[in-house]
Amino acid sequence: MRRYFGTDGIRGRANGVITPELALKVGQAAGLVFQRGDHRHRVVIGKDTRLSGYMIETALVAGFTSVGMDVLLLGPMPTPAVAMLTRSMRADIGVMISASHNPYEDNGIKLFGPDGFKLRDEVEHEIERLLESDLQKRLAGSGDLGRAKRIESVHARYIEFAKRTLPRNLTLDGLRVVVDCANGAAYRVAPETLWELGAEVIAIGTEPDGFNINRDVGSTAPDALVRKVRELRADIGIALDGDADRVLVVDEKGQRVDGDQLMAVVARSWKEDERLTKAGIVATIMSNLGLERYLGGLGLGMVRTAVGDRYVLEHMREHGYNLGGEQSGHIIMSDYATTGDGLVAALQLLAVVKRQQRPVSEVCHCFDPLPQILKNVRYASGEPLRQDSVVTAIEGARQRLGNAGRLVIRPSGTEPVIRVMAEGDDRTLVTEVVDEVVEALRKAAA
After folding, report:
1. What is residue 154's three-state secondary structure?
2. What is the pLDDT of residue 74?
3. What's the rounded Cα separation, in Å, for the pair 383 and 395?
4. Is 223 helix (H, G, I), strand (E, B) or coil?
5. Longest CA span, the chain
6. Interatomic CA distance for residues 264 and 244, integer angstroms
7. What is the pLDDT of residues 30-61, one digit of tens each?
8. Contact assessment for residue 59 and residue 24, using Cβ atoms and an 8 Å cutoff
């Protein structure tokens, strides 16, 4: 069992779980793990716009410099930008201080290796082992301490990187784009990138104050974006989350477009351009069955993994796929990035819109999603999924669905909650199946 790392780094209440003491030790432990060779080691640190970012950043700096690593501070930058800069600046490790789409009270620490990818499980285990040990004797001597400095040019570097993911002669001239930056890490780079590509840009969620990240804005709260798109009769709305590694799109009618539809658009486009490295994509168990059927009609397959973009990426790397993602809007394009990149995914969609010269509502309606019902059951203790009554209910539900649908039941990785999801052609049947399993779980958890 891992005590600190979850599916996406270390995350929790700022100054509760994520304390200065913990951040200091993470800096020391990670710094020691990634000191390989005799060169001068260095780490890049980015963050989103949460108030607690200052506290955690300072503690991490103390930790890394105390074991002899130099620190390059990037300031507020998207998670994919930190991953990219870790590799391009030849750093030994990259750090992103963020709790993604969570409210400002939470924060987290994400780590990237020198290749820009999130750490493997065995590396996280080694860091956890050091976190539990006495590191006093492994600190650097007085003359070997690291230095820290702030880097000012990184925004321009990321903007140029994002623009280069598009064909050189493509512009966004004539498109009116509303971009919602969630008062988060992309509040500067996303509007500038779109404007430099020629779009008419209306930006919201670009006034962070330390407290308002993800609050009534961003990909998890798109109502503000929907209203603005309708009000201004924009061609498209783009919503990022707090650290900009996921994206949600709103078409010109104000209708929401999720990650499944975005993957369908890109998969079709890349297949036509012969850019897919494998005849298919990687998604998770939560992606809609409609996506799987649509891809099958194109002659493409879809591999499912556990929920979490790290599992999608691991399968992509292991089996040679270059496109994958999640329904929530984590879209991974390994030709460009080592993690989900909301801005780059949006640019790929805009490239298709410009090429086809069709409204976003037409481009992004690849398939009709099957009815999908998701309910959560909270429990206090124990293992409700092992109860005989629950096992029987699940088996019965799967038999009722047969080949016409799917049933997915999984415990949350961050809280005592069991998620029950079913989908199929018959909404009434799907609803009944979910209710039966939920009722059995509630009785078992009582």
Report:
1. helix
2. 98
3. 17
4. helix
5. 71
6. 21
7. 999 999 888 999 999 999 999 999 999 999 99
8. yes
Q: pLDDT digit string (tens) for 308-345?
A: 888 999 999 999 999 999 999 999 999 999 999 999 99
Task: Write out the DSSP string of 250-267.
Answer: E-TTS-EE-HHHHHHHHH
> What is the distance between the alpha carbons of residues 91 and 278, in angstroms, rounded to a whole number?
31
Residues paired with residue 304 on neighbouring β-strands, in sequence order: 283
User: Element (H or E) spanning 131, and its range?
Assistant: helix 121-131
What tokens appear for 261 in the block?
């539809």
Residue closest to 239 by CA, chosen among 247, 251, 230, 231: 247
β-pair type (70-76, 148-150): parallel
Q: Give the active site residues.
A: 100
Helix (H) or strand (E) holding 237, with range, is strand 236-240
Strands 247-250 and 256-257: what pairing?
A: antiparallel
Look at residue 189 and give its three-state secondary structure.
Answer: helix
Per-residue pLDDT at 308 = 86
Decide: 358 and 365 in contact? Cβ < 8 Å: no
Nearest to 96 by CA among 105, 113, 88, 104: 113
For residues 112 and 118, what is the distance between their CA atoms, to the nearest angstrom?
Answer: 5
Reported pTM:
0.91
**Residue among 123, 15, 27, 116 at smallest CA distance from 71:** 27
pLDDT computed for residue 413 by the predictor: 66
What tens digit of pLDDT does each residue of 186-203 get? 999 999 999 999 999 999
The C-alpha R_g of the chain, in whole angstroms, comes to 22
Host H or E run for residue 316: helix 309-319
Cα–chain center distance at 369: 22
Tens-digit pLDDT profile for residues 272-292: 999 999 999 999 999 999 999
Q: Provide the 3-class DSSP secondary structure of residue 231.
A: helix
* Own/partner long-range contacts of 352-361 (Cβ < 8 Å, ≥24 apart): 352/265, 352/266, 352/269, 353/175, 353/235, 353/236, 354/170, 354/171, 354/172, 354/175, 355/269, 359/235, 359/251, 359/252, 360/235, 360/236, 360/249, 360/251, 360/252, 360/257, 361/251, 361/252, 361/253, 361/255
Backbone angles phi, psi at 97, to 5 degrees: -95, 105
**160 is written with which tokens?**
């140029």
